[in-house]
Amino acid sequence: MAFPPWRFFAPTVTAVSPTYATAAGGTTITITGTGFAGVLGVTVGGVAATNVTVVNGTTITARTPAGAIGTADVVVTNLAGAATGSNLFNYARVPDAPTNVVAIGRDKSASVSFTLPSGNGAPVTSYTVTSSPGNFTATGSGPSILVTGLTNGVSYTFTVRATNAIGNSSASIASAGVPG
After folding, report:
1. What is the DSSP letter of 143?
2. Is 5 helix (H, G, I), strand (E, B) or coil?
């Protein structure tokens, strides 16, 4: 049974979760707003989403298409009009690996500094430093992290990984060896 358009209200889009997803597409997002009765379609970054499901009048789930890294508008269209959610969703990929890793040996520890990488569309939330040998790790917000638990007199190298909402970067090039 078709409903007359006067029974529908123009939609609004107030939130999208998650706010970051892989640029390859295929992520299920939840769109929150109002007026989702009679939805005709959803686009993300101007491309039609798939598997669009109207959960209720305030919630839609959809699978993202592939998109370019950066902010993508989410548009919901129903019989009464369209609503654009701007700055609510971003395509991203894992961050680049940190560079210029330098370690300074201290008593049973090392201070590891590095150049911050690009987050590739999502902010970097943490950095993890790993030693070799021993796989001692320390996590911080960068660009300098103290690794403890080392043995004095042992030579260690260190790699760093960056993490954002999409995942972990590859490991950086290892630092030069320094004594613990």
Report:
1. S
2. helix
